[in-house]
Design brief:
alpha/beta, 17% strand, 5-stranded parallel sheet, 5 strands, Rossmann fold
Length: 149
Amino acid sequence: MPNPTNSEPIEILLVEDNPDDARTTMEALREGKIHNKIHLVEDGVEALRFLHRQGKHADAPRPDLILLDLSLPRLGGLEVLAQIKDHDDLRQIPVVIMTGSRRDEDVLKAYHHHANCYVTKPVDVEQFLGIVHKIEDFWLTVVRLPRAA
């Protein structure tokens, strides 16, 4: 059970193609209360390779939490989400959609594919940092995350 007293780090997979958003998210999570390891992939194809431990990701850990953007090259976030939630060994991993899209259609599709929550990224850097800290506070200190058997 990941919590502030657990010595094992939380494994986070960040799927983000925007270098500025990736850097800001990673910095905010590194400043956090919970020891975590952040793994960054920049597109949907690499996200699935990481999750299935293929190619250069053969030794990848199973993430405890996935932060997933929707606008990704090669394979979009909704397709990645659908494949995660359709896979027996991956569907228990919580997926937080972190995206710039405010479209109701995207929100509905994300929840249709069993996203655990949908967060719209603010444009302002300080607000963006605040959102990441709130995600960390909730998902890494309040919620009990499933561990792989």
